[in-house]
Specification:
7 strands; 283 residues
Length: 283
């Protein structure tokens, strides 16, 4: 089930379990788009103004179906799973390949040490369902097996999503992962989208957020515009494409399997599925 984030209010809808490829929240004070207006200028048109991050994301939404790869190769992955010895398959009475999780073909490389199992969460700060899942994942990460490594990757659908991703990686570079939850809270509880219709205005919102949480402005901007943050943004863009991300939150286990809350059943079942997939990979 899919939805579009409101201009001023981000509602937490318990019955919906994934944020589709969509626009970031509209900055406060911006006029909502007309229902009759085209979502994207025709190619080659003249006299158009530069698209804002919000408009770019809306255009990306329109092309989501065309961009999806219909031949994802999952049949080959399912056949491979069926051929595994019984002691290496997931409990058939609990999880079903193709229903609760999907093989990712081809499998993608991971960023963890040999012997560890990587669990990637692809997320977006503006997604109410990522916000709802955050406390579950945080608790799970504190108590999961030592070989399981949770890695967060911000989705990169548009310039607006990229701006939120830059904030995430800047905070990570400064060792302030504790502000990850606060960024979610700023958007979903305090009505601050942490996004504006220009890069300069968006950066100002991010600086203000950092300063309000005890980070020196100069230090923050050094990290914000650093080589390491730019490199991480490029990697996140590659992974968004490689994982074929069409909705968030998306969980990717060891570069081989994808799943989400809807496929698992609910947040609690998702964590159990992640445990079982990780244990299977460890074996």
């Amino acid at each position: 089930m899919m939805h579009r984030v409101s201009s001023l209010v981000l509602l937490l809808l318990a019955s919906v379990t994934a944020c589709a490829k969509e626009a970031p929240p509209q900055p406060a004070g911006a006029a909502p788009p007309s229902a009759s207006a085209p979502a994207q200028q025709p190619s080659g048109s003249t006299g158009s103004t530069a698209a804002t991050p919000v408009e770019e994301a809306e255009a990306a939404q329109e092309s989501v179906s065309a961009a999806a790869d219909p031949a994802d190769g999952s049949d080959a992955g399912l056949e491979r799973l069926a051929a595994l010895p019984a002691d290496q398959q997931l409990p058939n009475d609990r999880w079903k390949a193709g229903t609760n999780y999907t093989p990712l073909v081809p499998a993608q490389p991971t960023s963890v040490d040999a012997g560890d199992v990587e669990v990637v969460e692809v997320f977006w700060y503006g997604c109410s369902h990522c916000y709802a899942l955050e406390p579950y994942l945080a608790s799970w990460d504190k108590n999961n097996a030592v070989y399981v490594k949770l890695v967060k990757v911000p989705v990169m659908w548009s310039a607006g999503h990229r701006a939120h991703a830059r904030l995430f990686y800047a905070l990570e570079a400064l060792g302030r992962q504790d502000l990850h939850a606060k960024a979610f809270e700023a958007i979903h509880q305090r009505g601050n989208p942490l996004l504006a219709n220009s890069e300069i205005a968006t950066q100002r919102l991010h600086v203000d957020f950092a300063k309000a949480n005890g980070i020196d402005e100069k230090q923050f901007l050094q990290a914000y515009n650093s080589f390491s943050v730019n490199a991480n943004l490029q990697r996140a863009e590659r992974l968004t494409q490689s994982y074929r991300v069409e909705g968030v939150p998306l969980l990717v286990v060891n570069g081989k399997y994808t799943t989400d809350v809807s496929k698992a059943g609910d947040q609690g079942k998702l964590l159990k599925l992640l445990d079982d997939l990780a244990a299977s990979e460890k074996r």
